[in-house]
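1st attempt posting a full record on here, be nice pls
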Amino acid sequence: MTLQQLKYADAVASCGSLSEAARRVFVTQPTLTEAIRTLEEELRIAIFSRTTRGVTVTREGEEFLASARQILADAAAIQAKYTGKSVRLPQFAVSTQHYAFAVEAFMDVVRTFGGAKDSYDFTFRETVTSEIIDDVARHRSEVGVMYLSKRNESPLVKILRKEDLVFEALFEAKPHVFLGKTHPLARAKSIRPEQLDDYPFLSFEQGSENALYYAEEVMPAIDRKRNIRVRDRATMTNLILGLDGYTVSSGAISRRLHGPDIVSVPLDFDDAIRVGIIHRKAVPLSRPGAAFAAAVRERTATAGLDGSAAV
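the predicted structure (as tokens):
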């Protein structure tokens, strides 16, 4: 077993694809495949499961990768201490629901670890809830960002425990309605759900996983008369402004990303949003991972949102 083989296994797990991993580590795919095969034979385990859709990490592979990444980090620290050069770029990947504060927290991490002469390899994925859980469970991302509420907590916590993941709440907020500043309800002190019946409800499409507990909005679309589903935040913002539409989120507005034309009004709805990170159980966060969690707390605290807990 060599450090090079550990790097190759790490790259395959992060990319979920042999061809993409080969490009990342600058070798041919046959060379990478042979190195992984030799490693698996030596250790007598299957690190990856090969399918027509790519590769996924096995249970044995998850345990192996946790140790392998620690070895790679230790090797990089030794190399940096005695030569001044790191053999491993700082790596961090996060998968998240569509939150502007998550984007800003990620930018804070890049600024912290991306000095003028620094190198790094970071990934930010805005995606659907089921893929967030899968990304973290399969080592494609170190952390995921999602929320729990009374409506979705029971099924999602069961899924997280099955995948050996833990949810760490970063803040709690009452649901808020996001709408344009010229919307007829924009100046209301609070809004009841029935007041929104005549306006389009914007929600994020969840792909093939259409169970209600995967929805990103605490108020389910099934209760709404007019629904529009989208895939990205920019489209949602444009439709909110262009159609007098609205969505429901935490209330944390980013003037940089939402723009000055979006406002947030409390929703009179009997539930709360606990936004947090998910990560692998008993695996400590890396320095970028811990910095990201701290940045989310700081960003949302300025919006009057706070809290911490673990599930």
